[in-house]
Amino acid sequence: MLMDKPHPSRGQKGWLPSLYFTGGLCLLLIGQALPAITLSQADALRIGRKIWQNECNGTVSGLTSWNSDENFASLGIGHFIWYPEGMRGPFEESFPKLVNFVASRGAKLPKSLLGRGELHCPWKSRTEFLRAQQTPEMKQLRQFLVDTVDLQAQFMVERLQKALPKMLDESAPSNRAKVQQQFQRVASSSRGCYALVDYVNFKGEGTLHTERYQNQGWGLLQVLEEMHGMTGDAAEEFSRSAAAVLTRRVHNAPPERNESRWLPGWIHRVRSYSRG
Questions:
Q1: Is 266 a member of any domain?
Q2: Which of 273, 77, 94 is nearest to 193 (CA)?
Q3: Residue 146 contacts residue 60 (beta carbons within 8 Å)
Q4: Which of 38, 9, 11 is nearest to 22 (CA)?
Q5: Contact status, residue 57 vs residue 24, Cβ threshold 8 Å
Q6: What is the dihedral of CA 194, 195, 201, 203, to 10 degrees?
Q7: DSSP per-residue string spanning 22-72
Q8: Is 49 part of any domain?
Q9: Contact 215/200 with Cβ under 8 angstroms?
Q10: Where residue 37 falls among pLDDT bands split at 50, 70, 90?
Q11: Which residues of 190-207 are buried (b: 16+ CB within 10 A; e: fewer)?
């Protein structure tokens, strides 16, 4: 069950370009000196709850997970990656960045997240992590994640804000105008805005060369590059493009990854973008 009353946002900061949510509509404003991001608690909770449902099936227990074939914990509504000390992988670590973000907005951190220096996952393996499910530390961590749903959503919006310059820098010069145009086109509707926020958290920006199979990525950049329309339902086209990109990822993946098992769920998720 979704929690009804996560704590309200504590203060907000913004960067350029800025995303404005007005009556559920997300507008991208590029290259202008704009004030801090405007994201109401209602908008943040709406997006956050959808992503919580997508990633965790809307459950509190799903906020702290560790998949059997991975060497990292997946935490929060966006399953933010957290590696134990000394471990790394091809995927970008995002949970320490989330902790810094929510702390800067005034959220109270559990004791396990306090301290100086780099923030490492205290559980060294999935076995340790599963054994700790009913410990006070894990319960405090889950409560912290329940209480900051709105801030986690804002963190994802900030990531989306920062994604466009990174994607334009990675894209071929001849392709940059199209990528920016498709980004703006999708962002111009409430359905499209949610799709952008969800997908960039789900599969990343598509700018890391370590996140590619056979030199082909599967992030937001690749989805936008697949789009060619100028009119019509941008969210619907984004949904189709995302499905094609993810199908290609599975085709290119090493056999030992067995990614075909995930594809039906991935396709179901991105098809929801066209339904709002």
A1: yes
A2: 273
A3: yes
A4: 38
A5: no
A6: 180
A7: ETTEEEEE-SS---S-B--HHHHHHHHHHHHHHHHTT-SGGGEE--TT-SS
A8: yes
A9: no
A10: very low
A11: bbbbbbbbbbbbbbbbbb
Average pLDDT estimate for 242-264: 96
Q: How many domains are contained in the chain?
A: 1
Question: Domain residues for 260?
Answer: 18-274
- Is residue 9 in some structural domain? no
Helix (H, G, I), strand (E, B) or coil at 224: helix
CA-based nearest residue to 95, from 66, 125, 71, 121:
121
Output the pLDDT for position 40: 67
| Contact criterion met (CB below 8 Å) for 239 and 271 | yes
- Two tokens, residue 37: 């991001």
Q: Give a yes or no: residue 6 inside a domain.
A: no
Q: What pLDDT shows up at residue 43?
A: 73
Between CA 74 and CA 23 the distance in angstroms is 31
Instruction: Output the DSSP codes for 147-215.
Output: HTHHHHHHHHHHHHHHHHHHHHHHS-GGGHHHHHHHHHHHHTSHHHHHHHHHHHHHH--S--TTSEETT
What pLDDT, on the 0 to 100 scale, is given for residue 275?
80
| Tokens describing residue 265 | 């769920």
The tokens describing 230, both together, are 């100028």
> What is the rounded CA–CA span in Å between residue 122 and residue 84?
6
> Has residue 220 got a pLDDT over 90?
yes
Give the C-alpha distances (Å, rounded to integers) separating 112 from 3, 120, 144, 174: 23, 10, 11, 47
Residues of the chain above pLDDT 70, percent: 84
pLDDT digits (tens, 9 = 90+) for 160-208: 888 889 999 999 999 999 999 999 898 877 778 789 989 998 898 999 8
